[in-house]
Amino acid sequence: MLIISHDQVADPKIFMNEVFNKTQEQVSLYAIHYTLNEANNKINYGCNFLNRVLREDTLLYSEDNRLKQLGSYLYHPEVFLRIQKHWNKRFEHARYFEEKSTICEDNPSNQGRYLILQQAIQQACLGLIYVFWEYQSSYYSLPYLLHLCEQFSDVPKIIYPKRSFQSQQMYSRLCHAQYNLNEKIQENPSESDSLKAEHLTYKFIQAARKEADKKLEELKKLHLKN
Question: pTM, whole model, 2 decimals?
């Protein structure tokens, strides 16, 4: 995570691409960015994500002490309800997209199915990240979201590619579904491959639900107790 005093690298996508290119494609970073003003404003209003990360993680470098003092983690029933509502809405979206991918059509679009499945996985990831971290990402790349989820869960392993070419191709199609649909208009993945991706997505969403339910039970005890 970077907290910076200016806006030049506010967009994590640009920064991550620059690092990737300047290291001859040897290093991939998955960065969370705040400007100094954003961070200080959030700390003022009791941001549990920043309070947790800045308190628990290792500080690699700090230029000065312009970042405000952290408060304590905020436990409150209303905080729990906010987390629970956020998860329920994300899970609702994930199930919606996943169910839409199963509709039988006379003229199916397998490229379109990958895009729908990508949306389903993204929504489940965004929900998990909020449940575990209370963080709302402003960047929605599938590899990025899966990597964030990997910091607290093994669920991304369901989606990550295995050694086979078919598995790696399926993962690539899920990650680049929007680009493929717009740019590779002549390419038509097989229906059997897209159905396998659909099955993986279903497994991922169900596993994410179990992880979220377990974490929500823990959070409920903490927030209601305090």
Answer: 0.91
Query: What are the tokens at 98?
Result: 């996943």
Enumerate domains of the chain plus CATH numbers.
2-56 (no CATH), 77-224 (1.20.120.330)
Hey, how many other C-beta atoms are within 10 angstroms of the C-beta on 104?
Answer: 5
Cα R_g (the chain), whole angstroms: 19
Contact predicate 75/91, CB 8 Å? no
Which DSSP symbol is given to 35? E
Sign of CA dihedral 133, 136, 28, 16: negative
**Alpha carbons 83 and 99: distance in angstroms, whole number:** 24
Nearest Cα neighbor of 34 from 64, 9, 17, 53 is 9
The DSSP H or E segment spanning 2 is strand 2-4
How many distinct helices (H) and strands (E) make up the chain? 9, 2
Q: How many CA atoms lie within 13 A of 14 on its CB side?
A: 6
> What whole-number percentage of the chain has pLDDT above 70?
94
Instruction: Assess contact for 189 and 114: CB atoms under 8 A.
Output: yes
Dihedrals phi, psi of 211, to nearest 5 degrees: -60, -45
The first and second tokens of residue 214, run together, are 């377990």
Low-confidence residues of the chain, pLDDT below 50?
A: none
**H or E segment and range at residue 51:** helix 48-56
